[in-house]
């Protein structure tokens, strides 16, 4: 009987050794748990290597090199051209939508219908009241880690996360509470003074208009606001000499 028990003990010890498990010296139960945790960590690292994955999260760069194919030009009636660096690396579908609508001339003549001081300027609605959009289907959200800083350009949407279409907004001052709730797709790199000059209101009494939207690589010259004609001054004819 004792011989049989001894054989069982040896068999169990051999099985444990073969499975790669080891007892911690000292006889304490806590030591064994530490060894198990260490082995689990090693196995996780080996699995990550075998899958070719990096466990460290990578953030997109804060800025990217200027590329004319990814610069959105907005000629505003508030005074000049605003140049926006588009970011297809973080929101490829939204950038493609902006480019497509721009080349259709969709944004030309649209107003900034909702402009809140110290917050943002919103445009891109053909109805001009915040309820409109293009005839294209709504977009699936592409929320990303980019923060809503001054000059950030993000897509406006309704309550549903996947309801962005054509409307966008330009952030006037940092609003981090919007992060990962709206799709950031670009940032102003030139002409922020013209964004600051956009008429305020919900809606503004005399709204700022997008005179022309274009992609920089298309080479369209800036469009300026038409100059109001100068009223004609009636000429004063000399008095007719008396007869």
Automatic annotation (TrEMBL):
Short name of one Pfam family: Pro_isomerase
Residues annotated as domain PPIase cyclophilin-type: 80-232
Position of the signal peptide: 1-24
UniProt-listed Gene3D superfamilies: Cyclophilin-like
Coiled coil: none
Annotated segments matching region Disordered: 216-243
Matches recorded under SUPFAM superfamilies: Cyclophilin-like
Listed GO biological process terms: protein folding
Reactions this protein catalyses: [protein]-peptidylproline (omega=180) = [protein]-peptidylproline (omega=0)
Enzyme Commission number: 5.2.1.8
Any one GO MF annotation of this record: peptidyl-prolyl cis-trans isomerase activity
PANTHER family, per the entry: PEPTIDYL-PROLYL CIS-TRANS ISOMERASE-RELATED, PEPTIDYLPROLYL ISOMERASE DOMAIN AND WD REPEAT-CONTAINING PROTEIN 1
Function comment: PPIases accelerate the folding of proteins. It catalyzes the cis-trans isomerization of proline imidic peptide bonds in oligopeptides.
Family, per entry: Belongs to the cyclophilin-type PPIase family.
Stated name of the protein: Peptidyl-prolyl cis-trans isomerase
Lineage: Bacteria, Pseudomonadati, Pseudomonadota, Alphaproteobacteria, Sphingomonadales
């Amino acid at each position: 009987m004792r011989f049989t028990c001894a054989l069982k003990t040896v068999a169990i010890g051999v099985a444990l050794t073969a499975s790669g498990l080891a007892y911690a010296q000292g006889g304490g139960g806590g030591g064994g748990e530490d060894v198990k945790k260490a082995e689990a960590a090693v196995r996780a690292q080996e699995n990550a290597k075998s899958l070719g994955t990096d466990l460290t999260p990578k953030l997109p760069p804060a800025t990217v090199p200027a590329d004319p194919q990814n610069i959105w030009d907005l000629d505003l009636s508030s005074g000049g051209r605003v140049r926006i660096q588009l970011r297809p690396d973080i929101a490829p579908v939204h950038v493609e939508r902006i480019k497509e609508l721009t080349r259709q001339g969709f944004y030309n003549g649209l107003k900034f219908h909702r402009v809140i001081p110290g917050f943002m300027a919103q445009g891109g609605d053909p109805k001009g009241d915040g309820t409109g959009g293009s005839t294209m289907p709504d977009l699936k959200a592409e929320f990303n880690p980019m923060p809503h800083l001054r000059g950030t350009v993000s897509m406006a949407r309704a309550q549903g996360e996947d309801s962005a279409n054509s409307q966008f907004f330009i952030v006037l001052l940092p609003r981090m509470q919007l992060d990962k709730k709206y799709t950031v797709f670009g940032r102003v790199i030139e002409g922020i003074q013209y964004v600051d000059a956009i008429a305020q209101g919900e809606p503004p009494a005399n709204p700022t208009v997008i005179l022309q939207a274009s992609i920089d690589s298309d080479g369209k010259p800036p469009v300026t606001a038409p100059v109001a004609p100068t009223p004609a001054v009636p000429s004063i004819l000399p008095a007719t000499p008396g007869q």
